Amino acid sequence: MLEFMPEPNVDEIAETVVAFTNSVGGMIVVGMDEDGRVYPEAAEYLEPVLNRALEMCEPHFRAEDLPEWRSEDTSQGKVVTITVKPTSRLFSVEGRDFFVRSGSLNVRLSQEQISRSQRRTVVPFEDDVVPGATRDDFDEDIVEEYRRNRLDRGPRSGSFTQYDLLRDVGAIDPSGAPTVAGMLLFGKNPEHFFPQVGIVMVRFKGTSIRESATTPDRYSRRVEVVGPAPRMVRNAWDLLREELQRRPQMKGLERQESYEYPLEAVRETVVNAVCHRDYGITGQRIEIRLFDDRMEVISPGGLPGHITLDNLLEEHYSRNPRLVRGLYYWGYIEELGQGIDIIYDAMRRNHHPPPEFKDTARSFGVTLRNTVDRMELEFGDQLNPRQIKALRYLQDHERINNSRYRELCPDVSSETVRLDLSDMVEKGILLKIGAKRGTYYVRK
Length: 444
Fold this sequence. Notes:
- Helix content is 36%, strand content 21%.
- The longest helix has 15 residues.
- It starts with a strand and ends with a strand.
């Protein structure tokens, strides 16, 4: 996330720092506007302004979470970048105003959202040191793989010492002891320290667990996936691509095969579960349940912070910001905070019903259904949504006329209705019968 600030302003910096740290972090560029124009004099007096802004942030930042600023040379003069890290604590401006980042805006939380966030804000589990763990419990190959990806995708170039690299991602504390975040990202066997780490995938027979229980074997496949988060994501993804059925479909005169679910939606659902589950909940792992008609992914822990089912698409908040940041540099997350939007869009583009969400105090579930809207699939490229609605009506009725079409689409004019129906006649989809007030249309 980026915020351009041509002139340093105490209130604006404090508000943006709070919004970034309550969300997924971000960068403030002081002395430059969105069009790239530089105001070099702004960089000269930033330090006292920034210090005052940070004093306004409550609670006070711990040393390791303190926003970092640095001067950058451009062809037009100096600018200053302020890098803000996400944390698990809820921050405010002087204890009064709580903000989160949504798109390019700082959004003030309502009292209800603040109460919800404060109830769900806990000691940052990611930052806890893992008792009994040492650096030898890290997989050096995975650390090196991360280092290469970090240099490719990170905000700065140059080389890291391994200590700097691990401190930057929060994998070790100042003394070098492994943290929970480090064990989740780089551990050889994180499940030895946290038995709740892992994914269980089960392919049930039928459309319910009860129905599957009536069969001799109950389920056709059960697989457990363990290991550090990047390996869990990759291995679960490979497993699902093997397991998901392919279905033939006709595109014009060409026969093609596609998976029963959009792979993009499946991938994002799995990544989200690994990123955002509550790793503090013991005795429960991520579950992937495959039925004949749907796929369910159940992640331990309800929605985090101020997120609700009502604002799921508009707001973003991470329970495990260090894990999210690490998987971003791995390339498993393309845009921070966009996972749910990607799932919705992939399901829509492939003519499936939208994803379904269920939030409880102990878990968050995502359901993807493999049913396909055949009408949308057949005519989606030729007709608009109103015309598709008319064809669905004709599936159950013999005919349709202008007045009935207006009832189906009350927000359009009579002329739009006439043009829509005429267009379907010209395309050979409908047949026009009668004249004037007696005109009606049937499927051709």
